[in-house]
Design a protein that fits this description.
This protein has one domain: Up-down Bundle (Ferritin), CATH 1.20.1260.10. The chain has about 325 residues and is mainly alpha-helical. Helix 1 crosses helix 5. The chain is globular. Helices cover about 50% and strands about 5% of the residues. The two termini are about 20 Å apart.
Length: about 325
């Protein structure tokens, strides 16, 4: 089993390259942790928006769905090379506020669980910041998540690990089953392009996709204008965007713990998700209903001004 105790940081994976199958499994487990670490802050921001039809809430929902899909795809890559995702344990869950992302990626702005306010959008832009050349290639800067995925992709391309076409996997809409090295590389490309995008300028997304990468979606909210093409040039000069009214919330010291039920549901969800890769359980039966339970409990806490706590509760023996 591939555990989650990482002996290598993201920088070590990128700088030393990934030279062995065990290193590849460790890198993919780290990728799962990275993708999951963004979900709690994005969910709290989404749930804080009072109007469920608001544009900003729809943007957050789209990003959360894609992050969950990226998390699932990283798990599918791991099982495809013979690894086993390890989620159902307390130390899989990040601790917030966080000064770094899993793998030792430093964050100048701490990642916290907060409502969708402008300062929090700046944090989200920081998380998703693309690998812009040439500044991003300076030696003193830490490697980006994009560089990490490039390293994983290079490993598949050069070492061509054996792929188990019958490995347990979570079905992801529009995603090709991972049965070949080419499928694996295509999967990694999807994760990177939908997330931070591909190398370009901080004002101009590459390509003509119908949906911008996460960084640009967040920058639209931060700038307050849609990103459009004018005379062949990208510009944040489109339709104005107004940030929505939100529920404000914070940690609670009340007894009994008002987040206890939320934490129990979260714990159950991690156990159910792990079972999808270990026993082949169908995610729609094993985990999706629990996701809706988590959403309902989280929204109820935030409406009461209480921050949901994304921490483990030891299940009964």
């Amino acid at each position: 089993m591939t555990g989650i105790s990482q002996v290598k940081t993201l920088r070590e994976y990128v700088e030393a390259r990934i030279l062995s199958l065990e290193d590849l499994k460790g890198a993919l487990q780290l990728a799962m942790r990275l993708e999951f670490a963004t979900i709690p802050p994005y969910l709290c921001a989404e749930w804080s928006v009072k109007n469920i039809s608001d544009h900003a809430r729809r943007v957050l929902h789209r990003v959360v769905i894609q992050e969950m899909q990226h998390f699932a795809l990283a798990g599918n890559l791991l099982t495809a090379v013979g690894g086993t995702p390890s989620l159902a344990r307390p130390d899989f869950l990040p601790v917030y506020p966080a000064d770094e992302l899993p793998g030792g990626i430093p964050q100048k702005l701490p990642i916290e669980l907060k409502p969708l306010v402008k300062d929090q959008i700046a944090v989200f832009m920081q998380i998703e910041h693309p690998d812009f050349p040439p500044v991003a290639r300076l030696a003193e800067r830490p490697p980006t998540i994009g560089a990490f995925y490039d390293t994983i992709s290079e490993t598949f391309r050069t070492t061509r690990p054996e792929i188990d076409p019958d490995a347990h996997a979570v079905e992801v809409p529009s995603a090709r089953p991972i049965r070949t090295v080419a499928d694996a590389i295509e999967t990694i490309d999807r994760i990177k392009i939908e997330g931070e995008g591909v190398p370009d300028s901080p004002s101009a997304p590459t390509g003509e996709s119908t949906s911008h990468a996460h960084y640009y979606l967040f920058k639209e909210l931060y700038v307050g204008r849609r990103l459009i093409k004018v005379s062949g040039e990208w510009s944040f000069s489109g339709t104005p965007i107004t940030l929505p009214e939100v529920h404000h919330f914070g940690p609670s010291t009340a007894e009994p713990d008002p987040s206890l039920e939320f934490r129990r549901i979260l714990t159950r969800l991690l156990i159910e998700l792990e079972s999808c890769w270990t026993s082949g359980a169908d995610v729609n039966d094993a985990a999706v209903p629990t996701m809706f339970d988590l959403k309902g409990e989280g929204e109820a806490l935030i409406e009461r001004g209480i921050r949901p706590e994304f921490t483990w509760v030891q299940p009964p023996a």
